[in-house]
Amino acid sequence: MSIVIPSALDWLCRSESRQAWLHGLPALVEECSQPWLLHVGHPYDDSYESVLSAIRADATAVVLKVQFPHGESTHEAAALVCC
Questions:
Q1: What is the pLDDT of residue 5?
Q2: Selection from 83, 1, 80 nearest residue 37 by Cα
Q3: Measured between alpha carbons, how far is 3 from 15 in angstroms, rounded to an integer?
Q4: Domain positions in the chain
Q5: Rounded to two decimals, what is the model's pTM?
Q6: Which residues pair with 40 in a beta bridge?
């Protein structure tokens, strides 16, 4: 899988640990998309996290967000759960 890493994620290049996470992002996107059978599209350029358009196997349009782990993101997954 080839993903485009938007320039908005340049802030991750400020430290070695963030660079390592960014380097592993394509594999992480692949790992996250496989269980849902997602066809991942282009990133949203204005996001400071990795937010990508995607299509599920049943043709439902969805968004895949893969976020650099940090203190402010601890509860974000729970907050994004929708009814």
A1: 77
A2: 1
A3: 22
A4: 7-80
A5: 0.76
A6: 54
